[in-house]
């Protein structure tokens, strides 16, 4: 959706004024991103199981969208908020438009599953069976499986005048059944709900020991619907439908009123499963009376209900990725460890001589782990300071910090307890670190610590030298295999001094650190980015070279968008690589005609943030870091953007990273002024360039001795 501000008419003798700024709606732009994910599932150029994976990702993304974004809009609407945003839409109108778009996307999602992926899987010997399709032998096996594995852990919950409506957990699978007592002459309409424990696998392989014939799989919900009558002896089953409820999953923490933030978040996590319902998904075909009862009990209007023509929660299809079918997956790729840091014993020696930049997942995450592990074991290292926003379940970095503490070093970990959907994991790590003697800090009050920093203090001769790692991605070895991110290592004293100031601000009482080289939110990042854009505009207006290239996940901030519009009007050529939400409208004559926006969605999740400012009068300014251009990143998070100063690394960014992604024609989509995304044009002769394939090939070349 594009909102236009009205403007006056100019006379023929006066210069024509620039059009008023326009903006895309944030939520509808995000849905456009998820549409691009769905297109990957529909893309028959991808291997089959990878298409299934994209369909599962689409489903998971939509869940989170309802849990957080839609839930927030519903709260605004119910609170009487009517003020429109920059896009001109108030909460009620946003919800109306979201519903229309989601209806269309969900329809495409299930048609993709039924008409494309299921038949293609069957052709490859991976059959999905519904209850009516079962052979006699399969039916016998399924009923035995139900009695042995499912029946013992199901608890039927009746609801009527003497049984209250049960508390249903967030996104948990349920089956609602209708029953009749054949012993009574009048037809009784009895209803019960079967909550399905998460411990049960949602996809069940029929007769898994059989080596002959195709692999036959059935959804657990199909098994329960087929066999549910066994839980109600003496009654006749008249209907069974799977459904699930999505609830508001945003945490509301008043830090000033909470003496112990960790305990307060633990308490809120337990409450989330009881958050307000924001969506009901139910299989199509449920009778009208039962449908009305569910809506009433959940406090949902039909606008919040989706009748699905297929299985509930297609995110569960992600487990198909575990199948041993390499012919149906992307060719395997192993990140290479060919950087100057490949010898762990020489890490500090290497960094004294040069900066190092890694491009994940093409470059292995191993040197990041080695950096912390070497610091933990090196007797000359006195202190380690580290931020954690998200990390893996069995984090080698957490283990290294624990080892460092046991070795007598001063270790400080800034753990963000409020990293959305990772709160429980981070609480676990915080407790383990505290038990090991690590100083665990939760950062600035009212701000999430989202920056990616590690600082090592090492005695060398009579002086203390600092070594730093700064990144765009989380300290998570698992996601580093499929998120594209940048890791920057440096021992430059002026940069590490700024890093030390940031850590001291987060752990102490520094209100505004004196920073000379880093751009840090919430202190100076927003203001300095605006100034950098304005400088390019002034250069262009003066006839000097001016250029901006910015790569990020989301572009939402109105002030920054307005600055980019002004820069475009002044003559600055601007290329934006925005994977997800983009509220800037490109290509509007007189406003943004010099701005191009593209999105890259493919095998890997684009996650790096990197920025280029022509900066006439000196060397171009090249930056990277943790922040997207959103109000939350500028004002409500601690973010760090750092300069890339080494000439060789700068050259790689300007000659390799940006040009490759700006010329991708395989996975890139170009944003039009209408809000539609279209495939990027192919190169001469129809040749297609995939940035992901290009960087994988380059990594393979680096691995050759």
Would you kindly provide a written description of the structure presented here, covering whatever features stand out?
There is one protein chain. With 705 residues, the protein is an alpha/beta fold. The chain folds into 4 domains: 17-124, Methane Monooxygenase Hydroxylase, Chain G, domain 1; 142-314, polyphosphate kinase like (2-Layer Sandwich), CATH 3.30.1840; 344-517, Endonuclease Chain A (Endonuclease, Chain A), CATH 3.30.870.10; 520-703, Endonuclease Chain A (Endonuclease, Chain A, 2-Layer Sandwich), CATH 3.30.870.10. Strands 16, 20, 21, 22, 23, 25, 26, 27, 28 and 29 form a 10-stranded mixed sheet that branches. Strands 12, 13, 14, 15, 17, 18, 19 and 24 form an 8-stranded mixed sheet that branches. The longest helix has 33 residues, at 91-123. The protein is globular, with a radius of gyration of 28 Å. The protein starts with a strand and ends with a helix.
């Amino acid at each position: 959706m594009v909102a236009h501000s009205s403007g006056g008419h100019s006379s023929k003798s006066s210069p024509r004024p620039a059009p008023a700024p326009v903006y895309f709606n944030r939520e509808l732009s995000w849905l456009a991103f998820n549409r691009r994910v769905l297109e990957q599932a529909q893309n028959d150029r991808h291997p089959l199981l990878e298409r299934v994976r994209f369909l599962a990702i689409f489903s998971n993304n939509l869940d989170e969208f309802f849990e957080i974004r839609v839930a927030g809009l519903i709260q605004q609407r119910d609170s009487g908020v009517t003020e429109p945003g920059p896009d001109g839409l108030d909460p009620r109108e946003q919800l109306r438009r979201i519903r229309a778009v989601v209806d269309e996307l969900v329809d495409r999602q299930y048609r993709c599953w039924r008409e494309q992926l299921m038949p293609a899987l069957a052709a490859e010997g991976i059959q999905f069976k519904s209850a009516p399709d079962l052979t006699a032998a399969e039916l016998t096996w399924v009923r035995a499986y139900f009695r042995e594995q499912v029946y013992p852990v199901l608890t039927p919950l009746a609801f009527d005048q003497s049984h209250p409506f049960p508390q249903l957990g967030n996104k948990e699978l349920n089956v609602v059944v209708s029953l009749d007592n054949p012993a009574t002459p009048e037809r009784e309409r009895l209803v019960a709900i079967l909550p399905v424990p998460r411990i049960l696998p949602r996809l069940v392989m029929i007769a898994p020991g059989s080596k002959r014939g195709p692999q036959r799989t059935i959804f657990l919900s199909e098994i329960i619907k087929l066999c549910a009558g066994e839980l109600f002896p003496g009654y006749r089953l008249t209907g069974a439908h799977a459904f699930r409820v999505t609830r508001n999953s945003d945490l509301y923490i008043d830090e000033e009123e909470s003496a112990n933030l960790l305990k307060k978040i633990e308490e809120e996590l337990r409450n989330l499963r009881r958050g307000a319902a924001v969506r009901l998904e139910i299989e199509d075909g449920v009778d009208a009376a039962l449908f009305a009862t569910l809506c009433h009990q959940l406090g949902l209007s039909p606008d919040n209900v989706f009748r699905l023509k297929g299985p509930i929660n297609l995110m569960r299809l992600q487990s198909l990725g575990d199948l041993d079918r390499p012919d149906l997956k992307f060719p395997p790729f192993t990140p290479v460890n060919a950087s100057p840091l490949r010898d762990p014993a020489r890490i500090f020696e290497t960094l004294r001589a040069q900066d190092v930049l890694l491009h994940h997942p093409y470059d292995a995450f191993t040197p990041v782990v080695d950096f912390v592990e070497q610091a933990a074991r090196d007797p000359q290292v006195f202190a380690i300071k580290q931020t954690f926003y998200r990390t893996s379940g069995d984090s080698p970095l957490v283990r290294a910090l624990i080892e460092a503490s046991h070795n007598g070093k001063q270790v400080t970990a800034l753990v963000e307890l409020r990293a959305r959907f990772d709160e429980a994991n981070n609480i676990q790590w915080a407790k383990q670190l505290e038990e090991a003697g690590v100083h665990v800090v939760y950062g600035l009050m009212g701000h999430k610590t989202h920056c990616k920093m590690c600082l090592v203090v090492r005695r060398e001769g009579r002086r203390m030298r600092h070594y730093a790692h700064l990144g765009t991605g989380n300290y998570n070895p698992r996601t580093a295999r499929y998120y594209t991110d940048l890791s920057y290592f440096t021992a430059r004293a002026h940069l590490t001094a700024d890093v030390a100031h940031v850590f001291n601000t987060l752990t102490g009482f520094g209100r505004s650190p004196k920073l000379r080289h880093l751009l840090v939110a919430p202190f100076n990042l927003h203001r300095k980015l605006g100034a950098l854009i304005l400088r390019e505009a002034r250069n262009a207006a003066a006839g000097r070279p001016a250029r901006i290239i910015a790569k990020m996940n989301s572009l939402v901030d109105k002030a920054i968008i307005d600055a980019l519009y002004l820069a475009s009007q002044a003559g600055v050529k601007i290329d934006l690589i925005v994977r997800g939400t983009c509220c800037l409208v490109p290509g509007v004559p007189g406003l943004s005609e010099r701005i191009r926006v593209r999105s890259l969605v493919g095998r890997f999740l684009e996650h790096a943030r990197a920025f280029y400012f022509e900066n006439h009068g000196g060397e171009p300014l090249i930056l990277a870091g943790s922040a997207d251009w959103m109000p939350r990143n500028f004002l409500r998070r601690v973010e760090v953007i750092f300069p890339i100063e080494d000439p060789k690394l700068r050259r790689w960014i300007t000659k390799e990273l940006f040009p490759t992604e700006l010329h991708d024609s395989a996975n890139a989509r170009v944003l039009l002024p209408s809000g539609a995304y279209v495939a990027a044009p192919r190169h001469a002769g129809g040749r297609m360039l995939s940035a992901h394939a290009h960087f994988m090939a380059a990594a393979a070349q680096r691995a050759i001795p």
